[in-house]
């Protein structure tokens, strides 16, 4: 029986390993983590992450060929294949601060693998890492190997949160990079055999190590670039009276461009896009390519611009101040169908409104009050460390209340900001919401999900990203 161990039971390690266990009954999978609460949650009915379909997969395999444990060393020692899916935060200090990836957790995992191993192993990079990390890991492993042979593979994960299980069941592709030596090719084949149990062979791409590592960063940079491109257009649409949905549709029907990922919004979020682009920027700078670095940096700048543009629009529309006004925030997660708030645009929007002394009442169906308070008081980049190592915030943000119902959040509010595209926000009783709000009642739709005509009929003043402006908003001071 092949034994797999995955270090890191997070958004990537948990779902990917659960699906491998489900699809490969002859493989024994252990997912290990240094975080005790995380492992306890994986072994309970309340899994630590929300992901449609995940509960079902875990229930089918847990205790059979899928195990969650804090006994990291034991399971690593026993494994034939070790996946490493630990955090790779952006460095906040020293060389490359604010851009380069911090490989502390990766390095300590590699040293531990070298320490406890008594048999040959394939070590698989699952975390997104800077190009050439495999080489560094290889050095750590071989210099500490005590005669054991390690083969390093890069197998970056392309799942999207919110559709992780679907993506893992039917991936567009699985990418495996390895050394171009006979041993390297043998290791690639061993991992390919695992995936081939449910993924068609022509969807399993094999490359050299560096191509696999760079492809992951490139894929995320391209995806984020599409969002920044359409968001840049949305600003121009608002200024000119064009409608960004019509423009995106017209552009996306060109088969060379395609329709996906062209929804204008308040901005992209999530743990990967910004971090991976910063990483790419740093790699370009280190390789003497400042123009290329500048090019990709712009994707992040437009994203920041889109968030501050949204805040400015809210404040400018409401007589240039939200001081003391109640603003309802519907949605805090970085997208629907996940409870993940890492780098969610809601953080910057809320901080912007708090900066103008607004009072916020926040509702998200999957995000807890504790998480929201942490997010609003944490420093940039602190989120990407194991939970028990994150600096605790000394105070909670007093002007923020978190409620468990959209009607409660909007009661007596002056304005509603929709920041996540949860389906339930499309079917709310907006007449009831309007009746219970202060007047004039504003809705700022950061995800373009509401029926604007219907809401205007009810009496709302509505702002939608990239759409022709309400007469009211046109008369308000221009926003930068
Ligand atoms: P996460 O923060 O949810 O999980 C990482 C886990 O690793 C944490 O539970 C932490 O306690 C554990 N850990 C850290 N050091 C450890 C050690 N030495 N031994 C044992 N456990 C340790 O992070 P997530 O989202 O799963 O991401 C992991 C990697 O995958 C990152 O490099 C990320 O960039 C990448 N990635 C993330 C995707 C996503 O959608 N979240 C998609 C594709 C890649």
By DSSP, the count of extended strands is 14
Termini separation comes to: 61 Å
Strand content: 5-15%
- Strand order within the widest beta sheet: 3-2-1-4-5-6
InterPro entries: 6-PGluconate_DH-like_C_sf, NAD(P)-bd_dom_sf, UDP-Glc/GDP-Man, UDP-Glc/GDP-Man_DH_C, UDP-Glc/GDP-Man_DH_C_sf, UDP-Glc/GDP-Man_DH_dimer, UDP-Glc/GDP-Man_DH_N, UDPglc_DH_euk
GO molecular function, one term: UDP-glucose 6-dehydrogenase activity
Keywords: NAD, Oxidoreductase
GO cellular component, one term: nucleus
How do the strands and helices of this protein lay out in sequence?
Elements lengths: L1 E6 L5 H11 L3 E6 L3 H7 L11 H8 L4 E4 L2 H7 L2 E4 L19 H13 L4 E5 L7 H11 L6 E5 L9 H6 L4 E5 L3 H14 L8 E5 H32 L3 H9 L20 H14 L3 H28 L8 E5 L14 H11 L3 E5 L5 H9 L22 E3 L3 H5 L4 E4 L11 H6 L6 E4 L6 H7 L2 E4 L6 H5 L5
Parallel strand pairs: 1-2, 1-4, 2-3, 4-5, 5-6, 7-8, 9-10, 9-12, 10-11, 12-13, 13-14
Bound molecules: 1,4-dihydronicotinamide adenine dinucleotide.
Task: Provide structural commentary.
By secondary structure, this protein is of the alpha/beta class. Helices cover 42% and strands 14% of the residues. It is built from 18 helices and 14 strands. The protein has helices at 13-23, 36-42, 54-61, 72-78, 104-116, 133-143, 164-169, 182-195, 209-240, 244-252, 273-286, 290-317, 345-355, 369-377, 406-410, 430-435, 452-458, 471-475, and strands spanning 2-7, 27-32, 66-69, 81-84, 121-125, 150-154, 174-178, 204-208, 326-330, 359-363, 400-402, 415-418, 442-445, 461-464. The strands form three sheets. A six-stranded parallel beta sheet has the order 3-2-1-4-5-6, sandwiched between helices. It has a six-stranded parallel beta sheet with strand order 11-10-9-12-13-14, with helices on both faces. A two-stranded parallel sheet has the order 7-8. Strand 1, helix 1 and strand 2 (27-32) form a beta-alpha-beta unit. The longest helix has 32 residues, at 209-240. The radius of gyration is 24 Å and the shape is globular. The model has no long low-confidence stretch (mean pLDDT 94). The structure holds 1,4-dihydronicotinamide adenine dinucleotide. 1,4-dihydronicotinamide adenine dinucleotide binds at residues 7-13, 32-35, 38, 72, 85-88, 105, 108-109, 127-128, 157, 159, 161, 271-272, 386. The site of 1,4-dihydronicotinamide adenine dinucleotide (NAI) has 28 residues, from helix 5.
